[in-house]
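Troubleshooting entry. The earlier prediction with alpha-D-galactopyranose gave an output that would not parse, so I re-checked the input for stray whitespace and re-submitted. Clean input:
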Amino acid sequence: MDRNWRSSVAPGFVVCALILFASRASAQNQRDAIAQTPPMGWNSWNKFGCNVSEDLIKSVADAIATNGMKEAGYQYVVIDDCWQVSRDENEFIVADQQRFPSGIKALADYVHSEGLKLGLYSDAGTKTCDDRPGSQGHEYQDALQYARWGVDYLKYDWCNTGTRNAEEAYTTMSDALLVTGRPIVFSMCEWGTAKPWQWAKGIGNLWRTTGDIGDKWEGVFKSPEGNCCLNGMVDILDLQAGLDAFAGPGHWNDPDMLEVGNGGMTIPEYRAHFSFWALLAAPLIAGNDVRSMTPEIKEILTNVEVIAVNQDELGREGRRIRKDGDLEVWARPLSDGSRAVILFNRGKSEQEVTARWEEIAYPNHLAARVRDLWAHKDVGSFTGEYSAKVAPHSVAMVKITP
Ligand code: GLA
């Protein structure tokens, strides 16, 4: 009897397990296909906080479409927290009608007409971080509404989630987005609390690895509104070391959005910030007022040679290969066999920094061309190592090609 039971039921289990495994694998392929290189775009939060509106989003989309950012690869225009106010009698999410009088569908149409894509924000808890309605218990209905509106990207936050399990909560929304049939990039904003890099591949396209970034070089500090805590750029950078193996085409570590151009760092510091985010294969989501940038800031955000490193199809995240006090070397292998290398000086005086071939997996005798990606100049041919003088709080970023 026992044997009969086993012989008839066991094959059923195996078939079910195989079907489940195959459908998870195909969901993962579908999810990964949407973001084969790190997403590029703009998000309202870092500069505008809750002060979002239809006029703001349209004027930002106009700027991106005409100021060289679209050509450089920026695509997603993302409205962060505070666009939503309530739910209607059928529990569908409702946008703030004062600030978005034409509605989200019309806004998506507008953004699409510029050749760009629209992103929205929600939260896995009962309320968002700014106390707007969250998606807990409404995941499928919200995903359906986003798809009907023509939304292309969802940033999904982690406030007011109580005892929810992060993997379960993010899987629910990921599945809900997939069944809409609309390709929607899924940006998981869980702040790295439950180490999402260990489980989020196939669930999200990008996952935050830390708390929020602030517009400062270093330190942990309060926001202008007095909220604790924002993290300086190098504090966030330090927390990325060791996470590189978890990223790849379709699924990326997210060290948070860019602060380039928001005024709290110097131009060399912003260049360092942008260089690192490119090397780390991080999503490049601008967070400044792109409608009124100085030429230096625009030059940073649209540096095509640095962006090419970020968007390299091999999709290998860079990593720190040496730290000698204030001096560091970071490197990333690229699809053409070359290496992108950052020589970093976090100290207060100019220093020489050296990248040695053996550290970037090249033989010592190899002669390789070095190109400076900020000066846009070939520096020469070098054998065994390359050194550059690096100003304080600055980087040199080069491409080394055998
Ligand atoms: C959290 C997120 C931020 C931003 C705000 C919005 O702090 O980490 O990126 O979305 O919420 O309230």
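This one parsed fine. The pocket of alpha-D-galactopyranose is lined by residues 45, 80-81, 128-130, 157, 189, 212 (CB under 6 Å).
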